[in-house]
Design goal:
Blueprint: H1 3-9, H2 12-35, H3 41-48, E1 54-56, E2 58-60, E3 67-73, E4 77-80, E5 91-93, E6 101-103, E7 106-111, E8 114-120, E9 129-130, H4 136-147, H5 160-172, E10 179-182, E11 187-190, E12 197-200, E13 205-210, E14 215-218, E15 222-228, E16 242-246, E17 250-255, H6 257-262, E18 269-273, E19 276-285, E20 299-305, E21 318-323, E22 330-334, E23 339-341, E24 344-349, E25 358-361, E26 363-368, E27 371-375, E28 384-386
Parallel strand pairs: 8-14
Antiparallel strand pairs: 1-28, 2-22, 3-17, 3-21, 4-16, 5-7, 6-15, 7-8, 9-13, 10-13, 11-12, 15-16, 17-20, 18-19, 18-21, 19-20, 22-27, 23-24, 24-25, 26-27
Length: 387
């Protein structure tokens, strides 16, 4: 073994250091080669390419058909129960049916053989009324009689005219005003010999009266009957003589913001209700609502409708609403395709050949629902324009 080789073995750390240096040099060369590798130009081009969005030129009325769903809404319901009831408040007559419409002075049934009438407006019946009674309750009843066509004075006093009006109302449906016994004051008469006096009771007399239970109020000119008690039913606060709704029914639809922006109160709409087509009118577009109780976010559209055409349809029924499309067909493009510069208004028509899109001048006739009707143009139906 040579002296030089023996000397290297005596210093093995030199060998280890050399090996480590060579390894690091190889790794560095590899990384440098990776960084200087040729760039894939196709990948770069794809990353930098602009994605074109196009739309078709259509020929149709500017206002496109829009369809969505709504529900029939009821106005507030009211239970009709007299303020006073007899101990046995049993229904003895029941003339009402569901979907009947009642107004002022309508006979709505009889309880314990006493007729009950509905009156529009305000009543305050807390007592039976007889001749010469006075008070605000009397005046309100007189106003109700006047609204029903009776020629009396609202003076707050039960006079002969007020009693007669009540008697006529009862007589219309085959009843008479009830009467009650009144006791006349006793009189003092002298004995036959003229020396002694004795008290004599007068015979009992009877007077007609207006029963408080004969009248109920409806808060409006008319009401729609939802349900009515039948003969034999017992009336209470929990079991009314009739349940009615007051005011006109309507249709409400919840739509998203894009649909709300596309419709207008001037548009014509139809609704499919119980397999029948009914004309409706959009009267108001509500503000945006974030949604609660399972409702989707959006706007409420409120529609008026002829009450008679949906009287028999239950509240809450889902209906289909559609905007009526009218007008002549014309070329239309999305508003996003319209461009403008110093030379005028134009669109960019996409061509089949490779290259830049073609500029085509247009004249905007009218806009609506995110579209523009165009004229004076070389565009044709079915061609593509850039957005």
């Amino acid at each position: 073994m040579s002296t030089r080789f023996r000397h290297r073995l005596q210093r093995p750390w030199l060998v280890l250091s050399a090996a480590l240096t060579i390894g690091l040099a190889l790794i560095g060369a590899f990384l440098l080669g990776q960084q200087s590798a040729p760039i894939n130009r196709d990948v770069v081009a794809a990353q930098n390419a602009t994605i074109e969005t196009v739309a078709r030129v259509e020929k149709r009325p500017l206002a496109a058909s829009v369809t969505f769903y709504g529900n029939i809404t009821e106005s507030e319901s009211h239970a009709l129960v007299p303020t006073q009831l007899p101990e046995a408040a049993v229904v003895t007559e029941s003339p009402l049916s569901s979907s009947d419409r009642i107004g002022s002075a309508t006979f709505i049934g009889a309880i314990a053989n006493t007729p009950v009438f509905a009156f529009s407006g305000e009543l305050a019946m807390y007592r039976d009324l007889a001749a010469n009674d006075t008070g605000e309750d009397v005046r309100l009843l007189q106003l109700a009689f006047i609204s029903a066509g009776f020629d009396i004075e609202a003076n707050g006093w039960v006079d002969w005219a007020t009693l007669d009006a009540a008697a006529q109302l009862f007589d219309r449906v085959g009843f008479s005003l009830p009467t009650r016994e009144i006791t006349a004051p006793s009189t003092v008469e002298p004995e036959s010999d003229g020396d002694a006096e004795t008290q004599r009771e007068q015979p009992a007399q009877r007077e007609p009266y207006i029963p408080a239970m004969a009248f109920v109020a409806i808060p409006g000119d008319s009401a729609l009957v939802i349900s009515a008690a039948g003969v034999g039913d017992v009336i209470s606060a929990e079991h009314p003589l009739a349940t009615v709704t007051v005011g006109e029914r309507s249709i409400v639809a919840r739509v998203d913001s894009s649909t709300a922006a596309e419709v207008d109160v001037a548009d014509a709409f139809t609704a499919i209700v119980a397999q029948q087509q009914v004309d409706v009118q959009l009267v108001r577009i509500g503000d945006f609502d974030s949604g609660a109780d399972g409702q989707i976010p959006g706007h409420d559209l409120y529609f008026s409708v002829d009450a008679e055409k949906i009287e028999s349809v239950p509240g809450g029924t889902t209906v289909t609403l559609e905007r009526v499309v009218s007008g002549d067909a014309e070329l239309v493009v999305p508003l996003g395709a319209i461009r403008s510069d110093a030379e005028g208004t134009y669109v960019l028509r996409k061509t089949e050949k490779a290259g830049d899109p073609e500029r085509v001048s247009v004249k905007i006739l009218e806009t609506g629902g995110g579209w523009a009707a165009i004229g004076d143009t070389k565009l044709r139906e079915g061609e593509s324009v850039l957005l």
